[in-house]
Amino acid sequence: MFVARQHDLAFFQTLLTRSRPGPAQLVLLYGRRRVGKTALLLHWAEQSGVPYVYWAAEKESADLQRRKLYARIVGLPIRQAPLFDSWSELWEAIATIYGGQRRILILDELPYAAESDPAMLSALQHAWDGHFQHSNLVIVLCGSQVKAMESLQLHQSPLFGRLTGQWYLKPLPFSALRKFFPDWAAEELLAAYAIIGGVPAYLNWLDPALGLSENIRRVILSEGSMFLAEPTFLLYDEVREPQSYLAVLKAIGLGAHTLSDISNQALIATSHLSVHLQRLQDLKLVERRLPAATLPAKRRNSRLGRYHLSDPYFRFYFRFIAPFHDYLPFDLERVLTRIREDLRAFVGQTAFEELSRQWVVARSEHGELPLRPEIVGSHWSRHVQADVVAVDWDARRLLLGECKWGEGRVDRQIVRDLIDHKGPLLRRELPDGDTWQFHYAVFSRAGLTPAAAAELQAHDGLDVDLARLDAELY
Predict the structure, then answer these.
(1) pLDDT given for residue 365 in this prediction
(2) For the chain, how are helix, strand and coil distributed in percent, rounded to 5?
(3) Among the listed residues 52, 40, 70, the one whose alpha carbon sits nearest the alpha carbon of residue 16
(4) pTM score, whole prediction
(5) Local structure of 54: helix, strand or coil
(6) Is 8 exposed, middle or buried (0-12, 13-18, 19+ CB in 10 A)?
(7) Closest by Cα among 424, 190, 412 to 312
(8) CA–CA gap between residue 305 and residue 286 (Å, rounded)
(9) Given 51, 285, 381, 418, which is the most exposed site by the fewest CB atoms within 10 A?
């Protein structure tokens, strides 16, 4: 299913109409595995009306890679294609074949080709300089090894200064889940988003005819399920010594968020742990968060950072599956019991809070909030913790929000605590806090009681329940 990629498609469609730096384009597309890069490129190429060739490198010799690429371009069986002694020789042949024709050439899994022959990128650079940049060819370089693809943009890369565009493909937004599961209630959709996020492959693995709980039992936790092997598979493709990285991910998944706590739980010295954490951040699997109200000048050197898993399925896996992996599939009920007991809290602490912050960002972009925040996140200190904090440093305005994922309506005391307790404590942590204007919001699953709604309205606060969140996040 191909949904919710209009913004991404628009970028690639512009490649065919650009006149600068010329009609020829050399573009980078990257993103984590399963996110839909190949599907996006093929959909775009097929809709473009321009003849295209798609080729994906494999882990094999450079001679065979070159032979397969040439065979794909000219439409020959592989055995009938000639062998090329170098990538330079192949690029020369391709330049002759294409000439001035308008074509799209998609080179997928590029890191595999570069690993087989490091000269591949230098040869492409020379071919671009000598031939392709003066042609009508649009070349898209694609890959899932995020760090390797990002390195193509660095000064040390042969392609530095040649790329005419780059695009990082993100998972689908929450609103796209309804296309996959049209009969599911909003609560189920949000819980599914907490478990697998917006990765298209994962969404396609689930069965829309089943409810979420049955999908967990019969799909995610079933013997031989791809879900059970996925985290290890992704790491083995990206890092050496994956076991130490798995230990770090497991520690964070079980609630260790500071450097010292992760070190103690993963049994890795802090001097080595920093390298592991930086690598996991490069892979977009871990993120370092700072309290939202941290002064901009202090953000770079702040020691208040906490590490969190940024991938939803990794969060679910290392919270509920990895600690009990040895029980599967023999004692499935033990794992299911843990999930049933803790899933609601997990959904509230992860997806619901994140979507609440996304709602703030979206409403701000539409000019529907009384501030234009530079930072939207959560906040913590010795004195106060807040689920949603949006800070407009220039206007000295701050939005303070509380998230409640309980089944019942939020009562008046929660609103009073937000305004009378958390607000003043956070104000003290701001420079010239008395000069700041505070705004308030309550994000809830089931809404507010009449008394709570009246209290919040008296302070011009925002009441955002699940129905509103579901309707306005698009």
Answers:
(1) 95
(2) 50, 15, 35
(3) 52
(4) 0.93
(5) strand
(6) buried
(7) 190
(8) 12
(9) 51
Distance CA 106, CA 394 (A): 45
The CA distance from 163 to 26, in Å, is 5
Strand, helix or coil for residue 132: helix
CA distance 169 to 142: 11
Q: What is the DSSP string of 408-462?
A: SPB-HHHHHIIIIIIHHHHHHTSTTGGGPEEEEEEEESS-B-HHHHHHHHHTT-E
**What pLDDT is stored for residue 238 in this prediction?**
86
- 124: helix, strand or coil: helix
3-state SS, residue 30: strand
Task: Tell me the sheet residues that pair with 30.
Answer: 143, 168
Q: What is the pLDDT of residue 336?
A: 94
Instruction: Find the Cα–Cα–Cα–Cα dihedral 119, 122, 123, 126, rounded to 10°.
Output: -160
pLDDT for the residue 325:
82
Query: Mean pLDDT per segment of 10 residues, for the chain of length 474 residues?
Result: 87 92 94 95 97 97 98 96 97 96 97 95 97 96 92 94 96 96 96 97 97 96 93 88 94 96 96 93 94 93 94 96 85 92 97 98 96 97 96 98 96 98 97 96 97 97 96 88
| CA distances to 420, 422, 445 from 404, in Å | 18, 15, 7
pLDDT at 237: 82
Q: Are strands 397-404 and 385-392 parallel, antiparallel or unpaired?
A: antiparallel
CA–CA separation, 364 vs 360, rounded Å?
6
Q: Which two tokens stand for residue 399?
A: 């939005």
Region of 400 (left: φ > 0; alpha: ψ -120 to 50; beta: rest) is: beta
Residue with tokens 């260790």: 256
Alpha helices in 75-185 (DSSP H): 87-98, 110-116, 119-130, 146-151, 177-180
SS3 state of residue 382: coil
Question: CA 249 to CA 469: how far, in whole Å?
Answer: 30
430 and 436 in contact (C-beta within 8 Å)? Answer: yes
**What are 295's two structure tokens?**
């002064």
Cα separation, 80 vs 83, whole angstroms: 9
Number of Cβ within a 10 Å radius of residue 69:
23
375 secondary structure, DSSP code:
E
Alpha-helical regions (H) of 255-331: 259-266, 270-282, 312-316
